[in-house]
Amino acid sequence: MQDRIIHVGHSPDPDDAFMFYGLASGKVKLEGIRIEHFLEDIQSLNERAMQVGAYQDTPLLEVTAISAHAFPFVADKYWIMRTGASMGEGYGPVIVSRKYKSLDELKGKVVGTPGLLTTATLLFKIFTEGINNIDLPFDKIMDAIDDGKIDAGLLIHEGQITYQSLGYNKILDFGELWEKEANGLPLPLGLDVVRKDLGENMARKLSHGLKESIKYGYDHQDEAIPYAMKWGRGIDYKLGEKFVKMYVSELTIDMGEQGRKALELLFQKGFEKGLIPKIPEINLY
């Protein structure tokens, strides 16, 4: 009998690559299933999950990474997987600038944000006032600051750990702010979700497979980290390892009740600000 093909979308980033190494390498197998990996930046994956614009005529990915911010917009089509989440524990997206050093100085100025549906942009809109923003590809934000096109930028991915060495001023780390606001709950940034029409049994099977893939990566870091560094975008091995371990943690293996509570709080805050349409039901698979 022919294996069923499951299309899995994730970002071309070291942490996602690390998580999927076990499956991508064939070291972790799912009986009767063949995984095909689809790599695209997170904002594009958000849009694909929503089936907007150019994606309306393409099939939904059966499993995909999305921003936590995007889930309320796709909750009718997807369940959240209890494994695969990216959660900041005292760290997260960072606002940086060359010229400015405080949020007050940014009032009336323009901050580059990494996409309408990214969780970073949601946090920016929840916790700041009087600051304008413009969405840019996440990997163009530093260049836009340096070219004077924007006054500051909201950094995600490896920019969060390289900005200091590049001489930018840190204005706000949303992970630090969230930790205070949320009484120590982790900051939910990215999720892996699975299509509801696959059914609960298949959803759990795929979630278990991803969990085994992450465990394989941790048990075989000498294989998984060099593989992940193919998507390191200029950072060295040591920084790449640090970044992977920031966002692939015990909460990534299973977000548990801490992760669920953190998501509920994020959605509540977004809903209260009118930034998401409703607070979705959270069922973990």
Keywords:
single chain; 285 residues; alpha/beta; D-Maltodextrin-Binding Protein, domain 2; 2 domains; 5-stranded mixed sheet
Structure description:
The chain is α/β, with parallel strands linked by helices. It folds into two domains: 4-87 and 188-272, 3-Layer(aba) Sandwich (D-Maltodextrin-Binding Protein, domain 2), CATH 3.40.190; 94-181, Periplasmic binding protein-like II (D-Maltodextrin-Binding Protein, domain 2). It has twelve helices and eleven strands. Strands 1, 2, 3, 4, 5 and 11 form a six-stranded mixed β-sheet that branches. The chain has a five-stranded mixed β-sheet with strand order 8-7-9-6-10. α1 (14-24) crosses α8 and α1 (14-24) packs across α9. The mean pLDDT is 92.
